[in-house]
Design goal:
With about 200 residues, this protein is of the alpha+beta class. Helices cover about 30% and strands about 40% of the residues. It folds into 2 domains: about 120 residues, Ribosomal Protein S5, domain 2, CATH 3.30.230.30; about 70 residues, Alpha-Beta Plaits (2-Layer Sandwich). The chain is built from 5 helices and 10 strands, in the order βββαββαβαβαββαβ. Strands 1, 7, 8, 9 and 10 form a 5-stranded antiparallel β-sheet that branches. Strands 2-3-6-4-5 form a 5-stranded antiparallel β-sheet, sandwiched between helices.
């Protein structure tokens, strides 16, 4: 698995008209196939008056596409190719077509669906994601200054804080040894658990 990827920060949409047909492309961020299929189902329901709702997605546990009634290979596959050529991941593309009465032919359809996705990608906010190891730090309130100072000195990023009976920090790091070093140094003050790895927007 790569430790970097590109995805979109939030949903984006554009619309183009080709020979009286309207092509509306919507891009959504999605983590996995389950999420991708839920988004596709929701949009297909919402725009069920459209002639076609063609889809493509690339997510952490797979990829897929659907021509939704267009001739085989003229919609979903070209859309997927655009996503992959632009090295996009964790993304769903849905192109809704309202037929305008003029047939485009197979080549015309491939160009139309590809262009629709490409144009939306060109205006979307693309973010670089990196793979980090996530750790949960649990400690007492009186140790906040000590923990903060230690994390700052090692330039470790806190991605979430929870203040409950104890303080809980979720810390992202690429260097497991550095975190182990804190555990050894402050063994009496903090409990550190490794929660696995996760893609996050690139941390400074």
């Amino acid at each position: 698995m790569n430790d970097t990827m590109k995805t979109i920060a939030k949903p984006f949409q554009t619309s183009i008209d080709i020979k009286k047909s309207q092509f509306i492309c919507r891009l959504f961020p999605a983590q996995n196939e389950k999420e991708a299929k839920e988004i596709i189902k929701e949009i297909s329901e919402e725009y069920k008056d459209a002639t076609h709702n063609c889809t493509a997605y690339v997510v952490s546990d797979g990829e897929g596409f659907d021509d939704d009634g267009e001739p085989g290979g003229t919609a979903g596959r070209p859309m997927l190719n655009v996503l992959k050529k632009n090295e996009m991941e964790n993304i769903v593309a849905i192109v809704t077509r309202y037929f305008g009465g003029i047939k485009l032919g197979a080549g015309g359809l491939v160009r139309a669906y590809s262009k629709s996705v490409l144009e939306t990608l060109s205006v979307a906010e693309i973010v670089d994601m990196e793979l980090y190891e996530i750790f949960r730090f649990t400690f007492e309130y009186q140790d906040i200054k000590t923990i903060d100072s230690e994390l700052r000195s090692k330039r470790l990023a806190i991605v979430e804080k929870q203040y409950e009976a104890q303080v809980i920090y979720f810390v992202a790091s690429k260097n497991v040894d550095m975190v182990n070093n804190i555990q050894e140094k402050l063994a009496n003050s903090v409990k550190i658990e490794h929660l696995g790895s996760r893609f996050l927007e690139k941390l400074d």
